[in-house]
Amino acid sequence: MSFSQLTYEVDGQVAVISLNRPERMNALTQVLENELRDAIEQADADLAVRAIVLTGKGKAFCAGMDMDELEVLPPDDIQRRDWMRPYDMNRRADYQTRYSYFPASNKPIISAINGAAAGLGLVMALYSDFRLASEKAVFATAFAKRGLIAEHGIAWILPRVVGHANAIDLLLTSRKIDAAEAREMGLVGRVLPPDQLMPAAMALAAVLATEVSPRSVQVMKRQLWEAPYQELGDAISDANREMFLSIQSDDFREGVAHFIERRPARFTGK
Fold it and tell me: A single GO BP annotation from the record (predicted)?
C-alpha cells in the first residue's frame, strides 16, 4: 500500500509510521487520517510485524487538525459512518471509533513524540500504549482555544493517565506544557534528548518484538484496555480463562524452554 502523507517502513519486526507533513507540523487532513488508520491496520495484519512506532517528520509530532480543513469542516463530519468502521469485531465497540482504534490493534503502539503534540495529536498519543518524548516536545489540548470541547474521548482517557486535577487544568486552560512537566504528571513515560528519541523507541520496540511473547503482549494489551470497564471479579475471571489458554500455548512452552536452556527466546505468537 502506498501513502502520500505518511511514510511506512518495516525495520526487522517493527513497523515505523511517520506522519509526513512537516511543512504543516504534521497537522491532520482527512487524507492523513485515513492513511494512518490504513497503515496501522496494515501493520496489524502483517504477521512479521510485532510492534509499531508512530512519530512525525520534522519538528512536530502532530499539531492537531489542519486549520484550513477545520475552518470548513461541516458539523456532521464527526458522525460520518465511514469514520466508524469496525476495526476488530472481537474488541470493544468503544475502540472502533475515529481515533480510539489504537487499542484495538493487536500490536503495541509506541508514540515517539518528537515535537508538538496538540489537540488530535495529543489524543493519538494518549491512545498509544507507550509514550516517549523528546526534550523539545510540547503538549496542549488546544480545544478550548478553538471554541471546541474535549474531543474523541479525551475527557475519559486523560484523567486516567494524569489524574483529574491535571486533566481539568490542561483541558480548560489549553495551556502548553513542556516534556519535563508532562513526565512529572505521568503523561509520558520517558523524556530523552532529541537524538536519542528514535533509538530509544526502536530499542523498546525490539524488546517487544524479540524478548517477550507476542501472544502474551496481545492478550495483556487487551486486558489493560478493557479493565476500566470491568469489576475486579470480571477481570479475574477473564485472567483465569486466558491463563488456561496460555498454559496450552506454544509460546508458554518456549518461554519455559528458553529459560531452562539459557538461550534467546524463539516465540512464534502461537
Answer: fatty acid beta-oxidation
* Chain-centre distance for alpha carbon 147: 26
Per-domain residue ranges of the chain: 6-209, 213-260
Contact 139, 153 (CB under 8 A): no
Cell digits of residue 25 = 507540523
* Contact by Cβ (8 Å): 103, 221: yes
Tens-digit pLDDT profile for residues 10-60: 999 999 999 999 999 999 998 999 999 999 999 999 999 999 999 999 999
Considering the segment(s) 6-209 as one domain, its CATH architecture is Alpha-Beta Complex (3.90)
Beta-carbon contacts of residue 235 (< 8 Å; ≥ 6 apart):
223, 227
Q: Are 108 and 49 in contact (CB under 8 A)?
A: no
Closest by CA to 222, choosing from 95, 60, 131, is: 95
* Single pTM value for the model: 0.90
